[in-house]
Amino acid sequence: QVQLVESGGGLVQPGGSLRLSCAASLSRFSIYAMGWYRQAPGKQRELVATISPGGDTNYADSVKGRFTISRDNAKNTVYLQMNILKPEDTAVYYCNGGGVKGYWGQGTQVTVSS
Questions:
Q1: Is the Cβ–Cβ distance between 111 and 90 less than 8 Å?
Q2: CA-based max dimension of the chain
Q3: CA gap 90, 45 in Å, rounded
Q4: Which of 33, 49, 84, 97 could lock 103 by a disulfide, CB 3.0 to 4.6 Å apart?
């Protein structure tokens, strides 16, 4: 059974940083495109960032220059480094493997508030 397990969420003040991790029990993890999505209360789930098997990255305009996605294929883990956090970044963050019709984690809450 495939599992994606997120960690690293929490409460942070505006301007602060968090690093999210997603450990994936995917065999052949390295061939999967991985991504992070988020869903704020009352809003639809939206793309935050993706990383291809080759390491190419893509970001939502709202997080460009502040967030960095990376992967460690030896550890079957994908990361999201989030800097200069804003209140509007508050959401549940979900790890995804293999695209929107692929695999999803349970989500981790990120709250940006003073």
A1: yes
A2: 41
A3: 12
A4: 97
Three-class SS of the chain: CCCEEEECCEEECCCCCEEEEEEECCCCHHHCCEEEEEECCCCCCEEEEEECCCCCEEECCCCCCCEEEEEECCCCEEEEEECCCCHHHCEEEEEEECCCCCEECCCEEEEECC
What is the rounded distance in angstroms from the CA atom of residue 100 to the CA atom of residue 82? 22
Please answer whether residues 16 and 111 qualify as being in contact, where contact means their C-beta atoms are separated by less than 8 angstroms: no
CB of 107 closer than 8 Å to CB of 92: yes
pLDDT at 69: 98
